[in-house]
Design brief:
Structural class: mainly alpha
Number of strands: 4
Largest sheet: 2 strands, antiparallel
Shape: globular
Helix content: 40-55%
Low-confidence stretches: 8-14, 178-185
Distance between the termini: 32 Å
Strand content: 5-15%
Order of helices and strands: HEEHHHEHHE
Strand order of the largest sheet: 1-2
Length: 185
């Protein structure tokens, strides 16, 4: 039986919590939104790390897949009811992802690795923008989803600084994010 992303997988202790969050929210979100266009192996690469192979998540193929998905969603012949149902499901999955991270912020012991959190949140934001592009219609419900709050922390600013961003650029990124988010679909 296939399980929907909306149902939390069983948690057996907290070992592997990062793996659970990554599998459930990252791969689950891609599967729920892209449907038959989603192939998990397309987003996993094997690299040599410290003289041994290691698997990493790689989203370099995501934008081309999203282009195909947007065109498929916009194909003529789909009824307004079909589009609304698909949009409702997509926004429910995105809202769930957002709600999970908001909930995790309240429990320091359950916070996933920052890099995993940022990868999931950034993919969710890209999927959110693709859904907005695919379902350009005033007849669809408006759904506010706030993503920027998950990027704005001291560690993110420190990482930007370490990668050569000057303080004014970091401030501008933060200000830009607050001005244009949340996006209302």
């Amino acid at each position: 039986m296939e399980q929907s992303m909306i149902t939390l997988p069983p948690i057996n202790g907290f070992d592997g919590f990062d793996a659970l969050i990554q599998t459930w929210l990252f791969f689950g979100l891609l599967n729920e939104i892209l449907g038959t266009l989603f192939t998990p192996s397309q987003f996993v690469r094997t690299i040599n790390s410290q003289d041994r192979p290691s698997q990493v998540v790689d989203t370099s193929d995501l934008l081309p897949v999203l282009d195909v998905w947007v065109k498929a969603v916009q194909q003529p012949g789909r009824t307004k009811v079909q589009k609304q149902a698909q949009f409702k499901h997509i926004t429910a999955c995105l809202q769930l992802t957002n709600d999970v991270f908001r909930g995790l912020e309240c429990n320091d012991q359950l916070l996933p690795n920052r890099l995993i959190k940022h990868s999931i949140v950034s993919v969710a934001e890209v999927l959110f923008d693709a859904a907005y592009q695919a379902f350009q219609s005033r007849e669809l419900p408006k759904v506010p989803i706030h993503w920027v709050r998950f990027y704005q922390d001291a560690e993110t600013s420190l990482q930007l600084s370490r990668h050569g961003f000057c303080p004014s650029e970091i401030k501008r990124i933060s200000t830009h994010s607050r001005l244009f988010k949340p996006i209302i679909v």
